Structure formats: C-alpha cells, structure tokens
C-alpha cells in the first residue's frame, strides 16, 4: 500500500521526536506515582567513613559494613528513602565495577526497606578532585572534602561534556527499571558557588540525556534559591516532581510549600534541618506531613564530612553543643534521643 508523501513525512518526524525520549510527565501521572509511595521520609546519606563521594564509591574505600550499619539506624528511625550523590570520576575509573557497587548499595538499602534518590551533578564545595586516596578531613571543618561534579573542569576540558553524556546514559540505562531507585535528581544547586550562567549547558544537557533514556522513575532538579528565577523556571518545567531546599525557619518553609504546591505536582523537600536556624524535625516535619510534602534532611551519621559542625567555620573548635546537621554518632547513639523518638512517632502515624 502506498501512503501520501505528507503521511510518510509525519511518520518520520514522529520517529525522530520519539528518539529524543520522553517529555516531562503529565501532572496526573506524577500524582498517581506519588500516591503509591506513601510519605517519603529520609536523609541525605554518605557513610561516616567517607569524606566525599569518591571515597564512598571507589572500590578501595567502598564500605559495605558501614553502609549496612548506618542504613539500619535510618530504618529503625522510620526513614524510607535516602538521597545519595554519585560522582563521574568513580565511574570513569571503573565503569562496570562502579555500577556493581551501585547495585550493592541498592541491595543493602532494599534490605532495610529504603529506596534511593540518586544525584548526578553538584556545583557545591571543592572544585578540584582526582581519583585514588582522598584527603583526610580538616579537623572540625564542615564538609572540608566534599566535591563538585564536574566543577570548573568542564570549562577547561572540551571532551568532558561527551564523557558526562556517556556516564549519565550508562547509569540510567542500567537502573532505569530498577524499583529500588525512587527518583533521579539530575543536578544539585546549579549555579551555586559562583558558577552562575556557566551551569546552563550541563543543566540542559543532563535533562536531554536523561529524557533520551526514558527512565521509569521520575526526574527532578531541585529549587534552592528563589532569586535564581531563570534557573527555577527551567527546573520546574523539566521536573516530573518538584523538589526544593530550605534551611530556614518554619515560616519560610511554609511559604515555600504554599508556593510550590500551586504547580499541582508532588513536592519533596530534599534538604532541610539546620538546628541553629530553627529548622528542626519538631518544627518542620508536622507541617510537611500535613501538606503531604516529602522530607529529606541533610545528614544521617556524623563522620568524615563533619556536617554536624557549622558551615563556614575555620576548624579547631570543639564539637558544637547544638549540631548543625546529622542525627547519629557513628556508634548509633543519637545526638538527641527525644528528637529521634519524635521522628519515629511521626513516621508511624
């Protein structure tokens, strides 16, 4: 049977468009997905034995015992999701080994009934990095070893963008049907640490690369600075579900919730809880649960990242009386037993 030329042209165009992958989910699909999740409650996770993402994921320092032990603390507290950062250098060193370790991590988390939100890129903290042994933490300094990915290297290495494309698509292709992965968070705080507009090419590319793979899980890029209006508009338009960061008091949190719920999509706060700012579990979890907003605080176990110390400190100070972030010591002792009891209670409601 012969078809008119315009019908054939339309068919070819449709095939070409489909090759670019999926569009952002319709709001109804996002709502249906969210309804099946229950209330998502958890923390940003890196084991206490790792100073940064490379130390977490490299073969020589991939600490399954610490991961298992510390996710056990999380499960006993009522947490059901962890937000976990990847790093392209760990993949670049050993692609198959890296994916195997990601699978091992997911297996451990799943045994604790915890699902995972993976983060690909990050504009925050140290700009230089290299594979191999990682530097020891600077005593008492908040996040002294945390790494950007890819940071300023992308401005100097003209081949890196293509490497990052292969990396993102390899990881998503491997895990895009894995139900242990709850969400893909494509880029943490784009434009931060004075990257500004230089973050646009990678941000737009990671969205395109991810959509081309059509993962079964939702995709998000979290809002973190309400003054970044152009970034925010793009991130909201390209996200299946809305995520955001807020480390301020309860009035600020409520304002953020009210603003973002107007988009009629599921909303999850993927960074909060800074005790000196009156951003605490007791002040914030009740309002988030009432609003049906997922809650993922910064920090689970105080360790080599030292995020229990205040941001911007010079180091050498004693451990603060009021922890900045984090919930447990490495041995499982909570910073504040009444706090963890409160989390368990609200998780069970």
TrEMBL record:
The keyword Signal applies. One of its GO terms (molecular function) is hydrolase activity, hydrolyzing O-glycosyl compounds. InterPro entries: GH, Glyco_hydro_5. One of its GO terms (biological process) is polysaccharide catabolic process. Residues 142-299 form the Glycoside hydrolase family domain. Gene3D superfamilies: Glycosidases. Residues 1-21 form the signal peptide. It comes from the Bacteria. Keywords: Glycosidase, Hydrolase, Signal. Belongs to the glycosyl hydrolase 5 (cellulase A) family. This is Cellulase (Glycosyl hydrolase family 5). It comes from Chitinophaga eiseniae.
């Amino acid at each position: 049977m012969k078809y008119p030329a315009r019908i054939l042209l339309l068919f070819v165009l449709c095939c070409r468009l489909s090759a670019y992958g999926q569009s952002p989910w319709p709001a109804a699909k996002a709502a249906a997905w969210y309804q099946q999740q229950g209330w998502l409650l958890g923390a940003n996770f890196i084991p206490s034995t790792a100073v940064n993402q490379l130390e977490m994921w490299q073969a020589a320092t991939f600490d399954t015992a610490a991961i298992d032990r510390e996710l056990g603390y999380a499960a006993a507290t009522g947490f059901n999701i962890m937000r976990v950062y990847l790093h392209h250098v760990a993949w670049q060193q050993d692609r198959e080994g890296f994916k195997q370790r990601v699978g091992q991590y997911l297996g451990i988390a799943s045994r604790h009934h915890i699902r995972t939100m993976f983060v690909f890129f990050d504009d925050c903290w140290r700009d230089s990095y290299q594979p191999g042994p990682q530097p020891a933490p600077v005593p008492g300094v908040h996040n002294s070893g945390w790494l950007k990915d890819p940071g300023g290297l992308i401005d100097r290495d003209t081949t890196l963008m293509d490497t990052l494309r292969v990396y993102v698509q390899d990881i998503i292709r491997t895990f895009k049907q894995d139900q242990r992965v709850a969400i893909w968070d494509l880029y943490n705080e784009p434009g931060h640490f004075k990257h500004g507009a230089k973050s646009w090419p990678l941000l737009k590319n990671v969205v395109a690369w991810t959509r081309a793979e059509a993962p079964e899980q939702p995709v998000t890029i979290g809002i973190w600075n309400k003054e970044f209006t152009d970034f925010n508009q793009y991130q909201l338009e390209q996200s299946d579900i809305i995520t955001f960061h807020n480390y301020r008091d309860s009035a600020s949190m409520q304002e953020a919730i009210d603003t973002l719920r107007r988009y009629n999509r599921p909303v999850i706060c993927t960074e909060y809880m800074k005790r000196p700012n009156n951003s605490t579990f007791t002040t914030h979890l009740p309002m988030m649960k009432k609003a049906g907003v997922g809650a993922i605080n910064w920090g689970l176990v105080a360790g080599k990242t030292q995020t229990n110390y205040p941001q911007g400190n010079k180091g050498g100070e004693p451990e603060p009386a009021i922890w900045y972030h984090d919930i447990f010591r490495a041995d499982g002792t909570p910073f504040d037993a009444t706090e963890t009891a409160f989390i368990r209670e609200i998780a069970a409601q």
